[in-house]
Amino acid sequence: MLLKRIYIFFLLFFGSASAQYISTDESRTPLQLIEDVLINSGCASVSNVSVSGGFFPTGEKSYGYFNANGSTFPFQEGVMLSTGKIVSGIGPNTSLSDDGSDPSWTGDNDLNQALNINNTYNATVLEFDFVPLGNQISFEYIFSSEQYLANPSANQCGYTDGFAFLLREASSSSYTNLAVIPNTNIPVKVNTVRGPGTICPPANPEYFDAFNSPQHPTNYNGQTKALTARSTVIPGTTYHIKLVIADQGNYRYDSAIFLKGGSFNLGVNLGDDRTIANQNPVCSNESLTLDATSVGAQTYQWKFNGNPIPSQTGSTLAFSPPYNASQNGNYSVVITFSPTCTLETDIDLDFSPVLQTNQTSFSFCDTDSNQDGISAVTLSNITPALFTNLPSNFQVNYYSSPTSTTALPNSFTLTTPYQQTIYAKILNNNCYPAFPVTINIQVFNDTILDQTVGICSNNQITLTANSGYPSYLWDTGQTTSSIQVTTPGTYSVTITNVQGCSKVKTFTVVGSEIATIDNITINDFNDNNSAEIIASGNGDYEYSIDGINYQTLPFFTNLNGLEYTAFVRDKNGCGIATKKFYLLLIPKFFTPNGDGYNETWYIKNLSKRGLNQATISIFDRYGKLLKQFSGSTIGWDGNYNGKLMLADDYWFTITNAGKELFRGHFALIR
Q1: CA proximity to 392, closest of 328, 322, 346, 438
Q2: Which residues form the signal peptide (predicted)?
C-alpha cells in the first residue's frame, strides 16, 4: 500500500507541477486593450473608449489582458471580461470563483433589455466607437462559466449568467446583439449552449466545448467553443460597440468572456461560406463573384489557400463553370488602404461538380418465399452504380417522390410489385434535382424441391438438378446440371434462371446397403399365427412375405400357410435379402378310420423348424400318458397297446431339451 500511495502522490504532484494555466495582466489601459490587443491593426479608428466593472479593495479588476501562457487554451492572448476578479479565472479549476459580493456593483440596463431580463449584477463593460473601412466587422470569443456544472441538481439547469456584444450606429439608440448562436437570434448563455452528459438537457451541443477537469487552464467549470460575432456595417460610418457581461439573479458562480487578440476585423463581407458542410456550395451551373470593393482601398490581392492568385489584383474575383474539386478551398483578399493599414478577409468555397448518372435502372431478385414481386432492397448498394463521379463526402438518400422529405430506410421494401420508381437526392447539397431510379424485381416462380436419395456401399450415384436453366453451380464447384457422387453427405446446387435469380436445391445423400436377415420370430401356437422379420444393416428397409407387396413394418399376422419367404428390400435400391421360414401346423383333430385320410395325428414342420428332436407326449383326459414320439416320426395312429382308443378329446405337450414349448388338445374322431 505504501508504494501505491507514493505512486499516486507522485502523479498528483507531477501533474500539478507540470500543468500550464493562463496568466492575466490588469495594468493595461482600456485604450491599450482595444487598440493594441483586440484590434491590433493600423486600420483602427477608435475613440470614446471606456470601461467599468469591479474594482476590489485589494486592487484586482474584473477586466484586463490574458495570455495562454503556454497552456492549451485556444486563444494565445486577448481581452478578458469577468463577473469577478480576472485573476480568479486562472487555473487550475479547483475552487469556486464568485467574487462579486459588493452590493454596489450593479448590473447593466442595456444587457437587461437585450436579453429580456431584469436581474443582473456585477456587470463589466468595455465600450468604444470605431469607424469601419470595410462593410463587415467580426471578432472571436469564448464564453466560460462556473455555472457549467458537471453534476447539477434539477433546479440548477436554468442558472445562467448573461453577456452581449451590443452594436449600433453612433447616431442611433437601438442596439443589435452580436453574441448569438450562429444563424439564429438566440443569445449565447449556459442554458442555450450546453453539452450532453448531465441531467440538464443539451442545447446546441455542437457549439459547446467541454466540462473542465481540475487541470484546465482556467478556473471555470466549462466553456463554449470559439465562436465568431459578426455584423455588416456601412464603411466610413461611426459605430458604437458595447461588450458587457453580468451575473444573473445573484453574484454567485462567476463567468467570463475571452476576446481573441487581433480578431477584431474591420474588413469586407465576402458573404457566407459556401461549403458542402453548410449544405450551400456553389452549384455547377452557377456563376459567382466575390466583391471586396472598399472606399479608399489602394490595392487588392486575392489568395487561394493562403497563396496569392496571379493577376487577381482587382476588387472582385469572378467564378464561372465548369468547376472541379481542385478549386475547393479558402479564398481571401488582402486590401491595402495605406502603408500602415492592411485588412484581410476570407471565405470558404466548395464547388459542386456536374453529377454524371451511370445506371438508373436496377434489377433485383425477389428473395423471399412468396415470389410476388415485393421484396426488400438495400438502397446503399445502388449509389455506387448510380453516379460515375460522386464525391466521397456527398450523402445520398432515397425518397418515394421528388417532393418527399422523408427518407426511405436503407432496407426498403417496395410498395408496388415488380417495378417502382424512387428518387435519389444529395442530402448535403442543395444544387441537384431529385434523380429518378427505377427498381425492377425479378422472380423465380418455378418450384425447386429438395431431395433425399440413397447411395449403395462402394457405388456411385448421379444427382440431377431441375433441367432447363442457363446456370448451375454446385457446392463442389461443378457447373453442370448433374454430378456423380460416391459418398453420403449433403450436396447443394444453385440454379439460376434467365432473369438472373437463383434458388438452391439440396440433395441429402444417405448411405445404404442390402439388409441382413438376423432372425424371424414366429408365433404359431395360437389361432392367429404371426411372424416378425428382424433385419440389420445401414439402410432404409421395407418388408414382404410374398415378394410383391411390401410394407414398412416387419410384422405379419393371420398367417395360414406353412412355408413362407421373408423379403427385406432396401428402399434405395441396394438389393433384397431373402430367407425362408416355416410355421407349425397343430391339427385340431384326426380320423383314424382306415379310409386312408387323416389317419395319424402329428405336428407338421417340426423338423423344418429344427424341432426334430422335440418330444410330443399325448394324454387322455385323465392324464394318462398314451404315446410319446419325436418331431421326426410320423405321429400317433389312435392306438394304445394295440387297442383303438375311443373318440374323445386328448391332450398333448411339446418339449424340447427339457423345456415345455406348448400344451394343447385335439379330438380323435371315429
Answers
A1: 328
A2: 1-19
Question: 218-265: per-residue pLDDT in tens?
Answer: 999 999 999 999 999 998 899 999 999 999 877 889 999 999 999 998
Is 280 among the domain residues? no
In this structure, the answer to whether residues 465 and 341 fall within a common structural domain is no
CA distance 420 to 4: 69
Q: Which spans in 601-667 are helix H?
A: none
524 and 506 housed in the same domain: no
Residue pLDDT, tens place only, 578-597 = 999 999 888 899 999 989 89
How many domains, the chain? 6
Cβ-Cβ contacts under 8 Å for 220 (sequence gap 6 or more): 89, 93, 97, 144, 145, 146, 148, 212, 254, 255, 256
The residue among 245, 303, 307, 227 whose CA lies nearest residue 270 is: 303
Q: CA-CA distances (angstroms) from residue 555 to 13, 172, 572?
A: 93, 115, 21
**Tell me, what amino acid is at 101?**
S
Same-domain pairing of 455 and 557: no
DSSP states of 433-499: -PEEEEEEEE---S----EEEEEETT--EEEEPPSS-SEEEETTS--SSEEEE-S-EEEEEEEE-TT
Amino acid at 267: G
CATH code of the domain covering residue 344: 2.60.40.10
- The boundaries of the domain holding residue 300 are 288-349
Q: Whole-angstrom Cα distance, residue 379 to residue 373? A: 17
What is the tally of helices (H) and strands (E) in the chain? 4, 44
